[in-house]
Design goal:
It is a single chain. Helices cover 22% and strands 42% of the residues. It contains 1 helix and 3 strands; from the N terminus they run αβββ. A hairpin with a 5-residue loop joins strand 1 and strand 2. The longest helix is centred in the first third of the chain and has 14 residues, at 5-18. 9% of the residues are buried.
């Protein structure tokens, strides 16, 4: 498996939830204008615990579970 934010987040969330901690995986996407003349999209995912409030640079588009 590749070491990506997706695999890390899913594994971390699973371990936390099995330990009784209410964890969620959040997914975000934003447009990235890298100056190369085109518009690209960049995505990221991360784990939050309970009702943790965060303000990531990526707008949240989906949270699981």
């Amino acid at each position: 498996m590749r070491d990506t934010c997706l695999t890390n987040s899913i594994l971390l969330c699973r371990v936390l939830r099995q330990s009784g901690i209410r964890a969620r995986v959040n997914f975000g996407v934003m447009k990235d204008s890298s100056g190369s003349g085109g518009m690209n999209t960049a995505g990221h995912c991360w784990v939050t615990v309970a009702e943790e409030e965060i303000s990531p640079p990526y707008p949240v588009i989906f949270t699981y579970p």
